[in-house]
Amino acid sequence: MTTRRDAVHDTLRRSEGFRSAQDVYAEMRQDGAKIGLTTVYRALQALADGGKVDVLRTDDGESVYRACATDDHHHHLVCRRCGRTVEVAGPAVERWAEAVGSEHGFTEITHTVEVFGTCAGCSA
Ligand SMILES: [Zn+2]
Ligand SMILES: [Zn+2]
Ligand SMILES: [Zn+2]
């Protein structure tokens, strides 16, 4: 499964902007990959859960994906109108998450933080 996930990740990395699972699936089939749509969906979901891809929900409820510019842990600032996504670091959030976790005796702390708003282009 890891190799298929990598193949999906690579396909997404070669794409500009956000692509749906259908788009990724069609492109992989075109390249001769023997992969099912369900597998593509699952791989994209796993990549999104692992913070390797950005995922957005379009107005008609479809999820679209984009490979993150970095594999390092980061956060997203997302425009809720046009879907523009900026990758941001949050040192204060990292410290706070660690502190609040250890305060309660938790280890292996992880977190997901997405910040939503209206981008400069949309509010102009
Ligand atoms: Zn990202
Ligand atoms: Zn916008
Ligand atoms: Zn973080």
Write the layout of secondary structure elements.
Blueprint: H1 2-14, E1 19-20, H2 21-30, H3 37-49, E2 53-57, E3 63-67, E4 75-79, E5 85-88, H4 91-103, E6 114-117, H5 120-123
Parallel strand pairs: 4-6
Antiparallel strand pairs: 1-3, 2-3, 4-5
Helix pairs in contact: 1-2, 1-3, 2-3
Bound molecules: zinc ion (3 copies).
Residues 73, 75, 90, 93-94, 111, 113 line the site of one zinc ion.
- Under the CATH scheme, which class of the largest domain? Mainly Alpha
Strand order, main sheet: write it out: 1-3-2
Report the C-alpha radius of gyration, rounded. Answer: 16 Å
Number of strands: 6
CATH architecture of the largest domain, please? Orthogonal Bundle
Taking pLDDT < 50 over at least 5 consecutive residues as the criterion, the unreliable ranges are none
Work out the helix count: 5
User: Helix coverage percent of residues?
Assistant: 40-55%
| CATH third-level topology of the largest domain | Arc Repressor Mutant, subunit A
Indicate the proportion of strand residues: 15-25%
Distance between the termini: 45 Å
The hetero molecules present are:
zinc ion
Classify the secondary structure makeup into a structural class.
alpha+beta
Within CATH, the superfamily of the largest domain carries the name Winged helix-like DNA-binding domain superfamily/Winged helix DNA-binding domain
Keywords: Cytoplasm, DNA-binding, Iron, Metal-binding, Repressor, Transcription, Transcription regulation, Zinc
Binding site for Zn(2+): 79, 82, 119, 122
Protein name: Fur family ferric uptake transcriptional regulator
GO molecular function, one term: zinc ion binding
